[in-house]
Design brief:
It is a single chain. The protein folds into 3 domains: 84 residues, Winged helix-like DNA-binding domain superfamily/Winged helix DNA-binding domain (Arc Repressor Mutant, subunit A), CATH 1.10.10.10; 108 residues, Periplasmic binding protein-like II (D-Maltodextrin-Binding Protein, domain 2, 3-Layer(aba) Sandwich), CATH 3.40.190.10; 103 residues, D-Maltodextrin-Binding Protein, domain 2. Helices cover 39% and strands 27% of the residues. The protein has 9 helices and 14 strands. The longest helix has 28 residues.
Length: 307
């Protein structure tokens, strides 16, 4: 036969065993001694065993009581641990978070944001996914990722967006190249150069930026490679071409390669970054991550639904 025992009764029995006095235990629990006494009697009746020996000298555990209290402490400890984990998870301080990115994060705002999130939610298992802006936003609908950072305004129905930061456009140049002696590079300077771009990540956005600045009909040369930025920097150092990129890549260091800002006529060229997520995503870890974003960019907290 199953015996139903309330967790409160178990806790009260543990306190009574600790104090060895119903009067002191009741005072510690801030209840009447008679209330505690009735509770323990009812518990013993449900269990069919005497847990306490009551004497003028106090209240002492029986052999059955010792066995019960030993098990009771484990039950209470495990219950509290489960409750703590659930509270932490509900606050978004544990669990999982999948973040889509398509830019380097060796420097800049994305790196700083991820560091802060790690400090405030060290129990969250964060995973990064690389891809183009279109593929990352599509992954939001598939539930593959929770949030995407892309360098483009990519509206989709039922997706929330938040403009977060902008990054300077830079170009990696081999040492000894004529452009490495310039403090800044203008778009026209790149017209006759071989430009290296990754096929994935920010490659499509960088290509659209080049076409908008130099014109689609311009005879500039672009070579795509399906490799990461660090391997592209090796090609730059070997003299294969120049690598246009975003500011987040400037933390990558490669011998014989230097970064220069790319300028329009009115100053450095900048590209805006947006965060996207599904409004229906119930992940508590996402809510905490969004709170961090809004704190870092309080003037941009009025995020909108696109589509």
């Amino acid at each position: 036969m199953t015996v139903s025992v309330e967790l409160r009764d178990i806790r009260w029995a543990i306190v009574a065993a600790q104090h060895r006095s119903l009067r002191q235990a009741a005072a510690a629990l801030n209840i009447r001694q008679s209330t505690l006494s009735r509770c323990l009697r009812a518990l013993e009746q449900r269990l069919g065993a005497d847990l306490f020996e009551r004497t003028n000298g106090g209240t002492h555990l029986t052999i059955a009581g010792q066995e019960f209290i030993q098990a009771a402490r484990k039950i209470v400890a495990e219950t509290e641990a489960i409750a703590d984990r659930l509270r932490i998870c509900a606050r978004g301080e544990s669990g999982h978070l999948t973040i889509g990115v398509h830019t380097a994060l060796t420097a800049g705002n994305l790196r700083a944001t991820l560091i802060e999130h790690r400090q405030r939610a060290s129990e969250v298992e964060a995973r990064l996914v690389d891809g183009s802006s279109n593929s990352l936003v599509s992954d939001l609908f598939d539930g593959t990722i929770d949030i995407a950072f892309v360098a483009a305004c990519n509206p989709r129905r039922d997706v929330r967006s938040l403009p977060v930061w902008s990054e300077r456009v830079v170009v990696a140049v081999p040492e000894g190249h004529a452009l490495s002696n310039q403090a800044a590079i203008y778009w026209g300077d790149l017209a006759s150069e071989c430009l290296l771009l990754p096929e994935r990540g920010p490659g499509p956005e960088v290509l659209r930026l080049i076409e908008s600045r130099l014109g689609c009909g311009h005879l500039f040369r672009v070579v795509h490679h399906d490799v990461s930025l660090d391997r592209l920097l090796c090609l730059v150092g070997a003299g294969w071409g120049l690598l246009p990129a975003f500011e987040g890549a400037t933390g990558l260091i490669h011998p014989g390669v230097t970064f220069r800002e790319v300028h329009d006529h009115d100053g450095p060229t900048r590209i805006d970054f947006w965060a996207y997520w599904r409004e229906s995503n119930p992940n508590p870890s996402l809510r905490l991550f969004l709170d961090i974003l809004r704190e870092r960019y309080p003037d941009l907290s009025g995020d909108t639904v696109v589509g």
